Amino acid sequence: MVNNKSYTLIQIVTLVLLRFLIGWQLLYEGFSKLLIHNWSSMGFLKESKWILSGFSHWIISNTSVLNIVDFLNTWGLIAIGAGLILGLFTRVAAISGAILLFIYYLNNPPLIGLEYTLPSEGSYLVVSKTLIESIALVALAVFPSGLFAGLDLLVYRFKDRNNKKMKG
Asked: pLDDT tens digit string along 114-150?
């Protein structure tokens, strides 16, 4: 069990707030894709210019694979966002989100010489909001914020009670 006394109140509030805000953003992204009729990742994947460009172009060349990727992307964002907001399986949600966002980053990184036709939210060089959010999720994965304020605490207590019953 995590000893909450080893963290200050401001540390706990900051971690939980970060978890909730990233969760909200990912959940909303997933739901918006779900609600947009005929949404597809094709436009994003066509823009891929770096180390995943060959893989991205293979995905869009196969309609069945593209449909699977779109389904997994949409529902993955929803599941990751919900897990972070609820503090349920927080570590798995944070790691999954970090990997997904890093894949986004590797498809379209802000590197010198790479130009994209889609408009950008800002001006970046190497570091983007996507990369920062991915690393923030790694940070959330190494701290037990789901045990501070989340359903992970209930899961932990249930497991702990069952372990005690099996031993006693």
From this structure: 565 555 666 666 678 889 999 999 999 999 888 888 8
* DSSP character string of 27-88: HHHHHHHHHSTT--SHHHHHT--STTHHHHHHHHH-HHHHHHHHHHHHHHHHHHHHHHHHTS
How confident is residue 43, by pLDDT bands cut at 50, 70 and 90? confident
Dist CA 64 CA 69 (whole Å)? 9
Helix count and strand count (H, E) for the chain = 8, 0
What's the full length of the chain, in residues? 168
- The per-residue pLDDT for range 12-24, each reduced to its tens digit, is 999 999 999 999 9
Residue 63 CA to chain centroid, in angstroms?
Answer: 25
Give SS3 for 168.
coil
Nearest to 67 by CA among 42, 47, 44: 42
Per domain, the residue ranges of the chain are 7-167
CB atoms near residue 72 (< 10 Å):
13
- DSSP conformation class of 117: S
